[in-house]
Amino acid sequence: MSTRTTVAPNDLRAFWMPFTANRQFKSAPRMLVSAEGMHYTSADGRQILDGTAGLWCVNAGHKRPKIVKAIQEQAEELDYAPAFQMGHPKVFELANRLVDLAPEPFEHAFFTNSGSESVETALKIALAYHRAKGEGQRFRLIGRERGYHGVNFGGISVGGIVPNRKMFGTLLTGVDHLPHTHDLARNAWTRGQPEHGAELADELERIVGLHGPETVAAVIVEPMAGSTGVLMPPKGYLERLRAITKKYGILLIFDEVITGFGRLGAPFAAEYFDVMPDMIVCAKGLTNGVIPMGAVLTTAEIHDAFMQGPEHMIELFHGYTYSGNPMACAAGLGTLETYADEGLLTRAAELGPYWEDALHSLKGLPNVIDIRNMGLIGAIELEPIAGAPTQRAFSAFLKAYEKGCLIRTTGDIIALSPPLIIEKAHIDQLIGTLADVLKGLE
Ligand code: PXG
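^ thats the input. predicted complex w/ PXG below
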């Protein structure tokens, strides 16, 4: 029997939807029933252009043949294998492919099932690494205001998005935050990296000085912050963070859950900005979003610090039932092959100028207070309606969907991150639709 659903279910009560206005959605559901390439098909039979690569993850577009085939074959061959004290060939193959793709210092991959789990894993590795080296007093973790590092306790502790934190108690202790870098007064309408704000990295000196550098384990930032509304790193900012962390023996973690796998025009943002952290957190585009999977990439130095003591002993007491799940590995291998076949991990660099000009053509439309872009990412910031923040952008989201385009909004910011297979005609459609939407907004 086919399990394919082409009609909308008529009872929406049971499913408690994540990060969703449940009551609003259930009063007027937006249901997607299939997808191919750049488009979804909605339950009412319309073609919807994917302006966000799902949730920043479907970088190769939908229903890609190599990925579909890899999963189908894997299900027949080996559906599951225990992740602890056992192995299967594809998990080793994927780890090798991944470190080959990553910049040079990254030699090891630890697998998880999401960006959130990858963040927790990286933070735990950072703490355990220092302890393994006899520096267990390094217990502090430093994140950044407006940072998004998933939704688990470590991630929301180092994260800096207020609604994601404030309902959930005391969080982790020993955490501090850098200031965010968003500065419309100085940097509005910037194409690429903003000119102003490198000095905000010097706040790290102050925070480290306050606590004592010998107590700080790691700094975690998104090299380009996506979820909070697309905040670009000012020129020189990441370099300064790297210099200060290095000076004090503090690990630098780049959360590349969004920037990983070609979003900026290079496989990873570390390479794009030419700043090497000590760990890279990734997920999303690793499997094209098709099967949940994340990874933490580490240097040999970090990995090797654990490889001591009796050989029969477990070196790192951490992992998940589905770490390196065979189905996810097959999806990952099919995905990396698709990226390579089609040159997708550098395509954002080729299309970048066209994308940039198209986006910035929206300047001057009502309520648009900033437009910014990098690689195949764009953000359009709107003036909030007085007393009703987020409402204007949410209306834009609903109107764009009515007109056949899926976009994302966060606060009053529209975020765009299309699949890397996008063609110029799709860009024209997406930006044309947004222009119509913005002209008609309250
Ligand atoms: N780190 C970063 C930088 C992320 O963007 C996560 C961690 C968590 O990943 P998981 O797989 O646990 O969700 C993310 C996720 C949006 C949006 O529209 C962004 C994310 C997820 C859903 C929506 O901005 N980022």
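The domain at 68-342 is CATH 3.40.640.10 (Aspartate Aminotransferase; domain 2).
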